[in-house]
Amino acid sequence: MSQTLPKLSHYLVDEAQYNLLRSVGYLSVDERRDIIDACAFGDVAHIKDKRKSGEPYITHPIAVAEILAGFRLDRDTIIAAILHDTVEDTEVSDEQIEQRYGKVVARLVDGVTKLKSSSHNKQQNKAATFHKILTATLNDPRVLIIKLADRLHNMSTLDAVRPEKQRATAQETLDFYVPFARLMGINDIADYIEVLCYRNLDSDMYNKLSDKLLQYGLGRNFQKEAIHRYLIIVLSSLGLTGHVKILDNRVTMYRQFFRNRGEINTLLRQYSFEIVLDTIEACDKLAYYLIKKYQIADDNIADNIRRPLPGGNQSLTLIYDRDNDSIKVTIMTKKMQRAALLGVIGAEHASDISQSVIQASLRNMKELIDEDSLDDNSPDFSAAVSTINELMDYLHSSKIICYSPQGRAYELPQGSTALDFAYAVGPMVGNVAVGANIDHKHAKLGTVVTNGQTVEIEVDKSSEPKAEWLGFVATNKARQQILRWFKDLSHEDKQRHGQQALDRALKTYQKSLDDLSVSDWNNLLEWRGISQKQDLFEQISSGTLLPQLIVSRLFNDDITNMCAQDDNEQMVQPQQLIANAAGVELDFANCCHPIYGDPIVGHLSRHGLVAHRHKCFSLDDIRKDNPYQVIQLRWRDDKAVKQTESEEYGGKIRFSAYLKLSIILSDEQISEVVYHLRQLNIGVETVDVRSTDTVLQVVVRSRSHLAQGIRELRSLLGFPNIMRLYQL
Predict the structure, then answer these.
(1) H or E stretch including 411?
(2) Which domains does the chain have, with CATH numbers?
(3) Which has the closest alpha carbon to 194: 176, 210, 211, 217?
(4) Count of H helices and E strands in the chain?
(5) Are 61 and 69 within 8 A, CB to CB?
(6) Would you call 204 exposed, middle or buried from its count of C-beta atoms within 10 A (0-12, 13-18, 19+)?
(7) Which of 4, 66, 461, 625 is the most buried (most CB within 10 A)?
């Protein structure tokens, strides 16, 4: 083959072309001829360009194309990969590419081409580029896999760039490209990229775990083979035919290590296997045997065959302990394995339910972007920043999949309610919702739904949205649809709805509007800076004031501010940090100790509004009895609080947090810990050295401030596991 290929500008380019052509043998002769032509075309276009390492630049896009050839992708994708930087970095135009290789190739190249404007800052340019990639991917998912292969090759060759650039590229990749790829079900390539991100983010941490893997490599291999043989014997004894594969679980280990989710010695005893069988019935038979033999708890069983993961991947996953080892077995059929390889790109190979889940993710992302906000001729860079901020929140939120009775999948953020599901189905359903059936059991609209549940919404065509709904819906979509409905009402109707909502909220305290005194009304009007009741009612229906908060202000006992504070200083009151609870008595719950930056909700108790972390276990019983007593709360944005800290209050925002370190600290180490934390303006209140661990009570400003302290402690103490405790 090497003799028939044309000679290009450099022997390294010839070598890259040769390796690519060896990888695309699955394509036709004509398609391979087009790829050879694209290599020559790209070589001429990039003739003056060099990589940081000094190599001819064209070797990079050809290597990207070779990565994609490993997935047996089509001719258009391979050629687009070869030319993906030509329009951005050379004199080549979209028209030239379209004329030579077709509209599809030109569209794919345009999808991965960065948007740049000298009149906008770096953040705006980056957001506009992300927005463009997102939009292009939703039109053709092959755009994303080209970008991922590009990132994979770049991340593996970052040694030639300065360390700050390495870390910035790795963080950007970990923040945007990896979660985006996983949501699209493209997990294989995301795994490789994620490991490279960790290598470039913190080489000390990466090398710490890598060295341990090398030290224990032989022992781990011995264990892998022993478990592998055992699983083959199990298949044989059950009369099943299938393939058992040892999985490389390094990405999981690095992720857990970097995210402070486990000790090194525990991580080293984790092993992963994939078992591919012929039918779903065979998968169930094997799973039943293992569950029974190892008494696997429900928490360690994930049936994602019937309930696919976001991204559409299907499998049956079991985690069990055997001889102090943690073994993860992923069971699937051949069809599921094929569909999982490329996620949304191979969606035609997926089952109906898997395709439904993929479509749920695509619908959510399509709703996030405004198709007109980035016109090619005059892109709106500012709008892109806002959209990408929303996208980042979405990508990094925990997600669940719920189903309609007809089996259609809807993707929702964790903590969503039945009413959020109703609005996910559509505003025509949400606006007239009156109740729900969750897994065939009647439930209120404020009931929090969980992954895999089937939700049926009860409707009444004469019903209308309620203003108090704005207090408990968790999704922006539901909130916007409710606000849109109220916005179209007349002033009189807005006032009527606000009045009715307040009356319903008062019933929580066995009160009504008639029970409010003149003094109560004057208190409320003065609080809101208005002169008449109608204005208060209109604020309720416009979403600027929750009726639940009015009731909390009127009927609560005096409470003590539990925010940690110095005896000699007046601390910032907690309600000054909550965006939507100004003027309401508020406490921080002792059961979960929320701090600024934690996702929070408010419980409308008899003693006022109490802020909890959104996952707090004590909320489960409250939600069962009265879900409407739990409302969404939001912290003020970072800029406002930072300004408050530095200017008005001199940094007096303080919260207590409790950390459990998986090591026993010596006196010398305690002194080092206290010293290093003080350098970060983190106070140490108490140190409790116990028989197997150490508990610290620290005083911090925020969740990010605490995370900074945890990173410092892990590096200082040799990377132990550090857990934040809900309570002592």
Answers:
(1) strand 409-413
(2) 11-204 (1.10.3210.10), 209-353 (3.30.460.10), 489-554 (no CATH), 574-644 (no CATH), 654-725 (3.30.70.260)
(3) 176
(4) 31, 18
(5) no
(6) exposed
(7) 66
254 contacts 209 by C-beta, under 8 angstroms:
yes
Amino acid, single-letter form, for residue 161? V
Helix (H) or strand (E) holding 309: none
Measured on CA atoms in the order 415, 417, 418, 419, is the torsion positive or negative?
A: negative
Tokens of 56: 């001819």
Catalytic residue list contains 164: no
Q: Judge whether 349 and 338 are in contact, CB under 8 Å.
A: yes
Q: With beta carbons less than 8 A apart as the criterion, state whether 437 and 458 touch.
A: yes
Beta-carbon contacts of 26 under 8 Å, excluding residues fewer than 6 positions away, are: 72
Asked whether 586 and 611 are in contact (CB, 8 A), the reply is yes
Give the separation between CA 222 and CA 269, rounded to whole angstroms: 12
As a whole number of angstroms, the distance between CA 70 and CA 57 comes to: 21
Q: What is the pLDDT of residue 138?
A: 87
Given CA atoms 105, 108, 113, 117 in this order, what sign does their dihedral have?
A: positive
**Nearest residue to 314 (alpha-carbon basis) of 332, 291, 298, 300:** 332
Mean pLDDT of each 10-residue bin along the chain, 728 residues long: 74 95 95 96 93 90 95 95 93 94 95 75 81 88 93 88 90 92 89 94 92 94 96 96 95 94 91 96 97 95 91 92 93 91 81 88 80 51 76 86 94 93 95 96 93 95 93 91 93 93 87 90 90 92 88 62 37 67 81 90 83 87 80 77 47 83 93 94 93 93 92 92 86
Q: Which helix (H) or strand (E) holds 662?
A: none
Q: How far apart are CA 584 and CA 564, in angstroms?
A: 19
Nearest one of 136, 117, 147, 133 to 379, comparing CA atoms = 117
Taking the model in full, what pTM does it have? 0.83
Tokens 């025509």 locate to: 428
Distance CA 183, CA 179 (A): 6
Are residues 83 and 41 in contact, defined by beta-carbon separation less than 8 angstroms? yes
277: helix, strand or coil: strand
- Cα 660 from Cα 658, distance rounded (Å): 7
Direct distance between the N- and C-terminal alpha carbons of the chain, in angstroms, rounded to an integer: 69
Q: Please, are residues 677 and 713 in contact by the beta-carbon 8 Å criterion?
A: yes
CB atoms near residue 135 (< 10 Å): 19
Is the CB of residue 325 less than 8 Å from the CB of residue 227? yes
> Pick the catalytic residue: 15, 31, 89, 188?
89
Residue showing tokens 């990010």:
704
Catalytic status, residue 587: no
In 3D space, the residue among 572, 562, 567 whose CA is nearest the CA of residue 592 turns out to be 562
pLDDT computed for residue 541 by the predictor? 92
E strand map for 125-189? none
Q: How far apart are CA 617 and CA 422, in angstroms?
A: 25
Cβ contacts of 279 within 8 Å, gap of 6 or more: 333
Torsion angle in degrees (nearest 10) through CA of 582, 588, 594, 600: -50
Q: Kindly give, in sequence order, each residue whose CB lies less than 8 Å from that of residue 87, ignoring residues fewer than 6 positions away.
A: 93, 94, 97, 109, 110, 113
Residues with Cβ within 8 Å of residue 557, at least 6 apart in sequence:
606, 607, 608
Q: How far apart are CA 224 and CA 218, in angstroms?
A: 10
Q: Give the pLDDT of residue 668.
A: 94
Q: Check: CB of residue 543 under 8 Å from CB of residue 625.
A: no
Give the burial string for 470-487 (b: 16+ CB within 10 Å, else e): bbbbbbbbbbebbeebbe
Catalytic, out of 88, 175, 303, 712: 88
Rg (CA), the chain: 29
